[in-house]
């Protein structure tokens, strides 16, 4: 069986348990988080999300600046069997957020304090959202909001009573399960979306071709996977959906000539994910 991202993390922990995996500047210096610590934090978050009621296959949006919580958030979501919906901090228009959150059928949102105002501005128009989880402590919380710290306290107690809960949920994740729904804009059409399985997620994070029709997309859509592969300087390859123009990109072939790659997915409107 082909590995999932969960398998990749476990393999990395076995080889590099005490090596720094993440670095984040706390005050005046960068603090490392090892591979083992990352997995421990991932399991704690996954347990917290399970306690919150997150079911396998449900969608979780993630809106934050680049930080440890983003990576651990993605990995935690994947360990529950849920689906990540990464959102760019460059999104400023409320309609852009509403479209992505409605179309992806997101039920939960992980958001940083710096991006919280964007979510608060639209969440009343999104009745399907069950809970908004905020990375940074706030002076006050809306009825459907919870701090990450409080949620992790739930997870700590849940793990004590159910020590195998995360492991059992993670074992149920298969390479062909849906793992990620990404949205981007380009000159083919106003909105494009991408649905990934864990195996495709791994291949794209590693910078490998997943089919004969490459399309190029960069950070933040594969933040955690890029980190696992230490491929920060590499171009990620992604196949697109919905190109009306009949081709997706141009690239030099083996003879040095420019050729167009045809678009094999032609959709005239956004379709729901089932």
Which features characterize this protein?
274 residues; alpha/beta; Rossmann fold; 5-stranded parallel β-sheet; disordered C terminus
Structure in words:
By secondary structure, the chain is of the alpha/beta class. It has two domains: 5-171, Rossmann fold, CATH 3.40.50.12780; 180-262, no CATH class. 37% of the residues are buried. It is built from nine helices and 13 strands. Strands 4-3-5-6-7 form a five-stranded parallel sheet, with helices on both faces. A two-stranded antiparallel sheet has the order 1-2. Strands 8-9 form a two-stranded antiparallel sheet. Helix 2 packs across helix 6 (148-161) and helix 8 crosses helix 9. The two termini are 24 Å apart. Strand 12 (247-252) and strand 13 form a beta hairpin. 35% of the residues lie in helices and 24% in strands. Residues 187-191, 202-254 and 256-274 have low confidence and may be disordered.
Instruction: Report the radius of gyration as a whole number of Å.
Output: 19 Å
What is the count of β-strands? 13
CATH class of the largest domain: Alpha Beta
Give the CA-based shape: globular
Instruction: Figure out the total of helices.
Output: 9
- What's the story with the biggest beta sheet? 5 strands, parallel
- What fraction, in percent, of the residue positions are helical? 25-40%
Q: How many domains make up the coordinates?
A: 2
In percent terms, what proportion of residues is strand?
15-25%
Distance between the termini: 24 Å
Which fold name fills CATH's third level, the topology of the largest domain? Rossmann fold
